[in-house]
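Weekly structure sync, notes
Attendees: PL (lead), two postdocs, one rotation student
Agenda item 3: pending single-chain targets
PL asked that the sequence for the first pending target be pasted directly into the notes so everyone works from the same version. It is reproduced below exactly as submitted, 74 residues in total.
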Amino acid sequence: MYEFVFSSSKFTHPVFVTAEKGANKVLKVDASDLKDGIEDMAQLTKKLESSRANQLLTEAKKHAKQLLQLDLTG
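Predicted structure, written out during the meeting:
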């Protein structure tokens, strides 16, 4: 299982994504900043469900390096 955290200075809380390893399936999305916007949450969920775990991992590496100065390539 992969767990990704995406954050930005634009939002109060980060977005947490849990994806099943090997199945390329998003199991859970916690985006509490979007809790008041059901339409936004539905769009986010649809977009994440269409992504593959490999794409999420690639994006997580890129964002970790840019935002947190962490290298996740190991």
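Discussion points:
- The beta strands are 2-6, 15-20, 25-30.
- The CA atoms of residues 8 and 57 lie 18 Å apart.
Action: rotation student to compare against the earlier draft before next sync.
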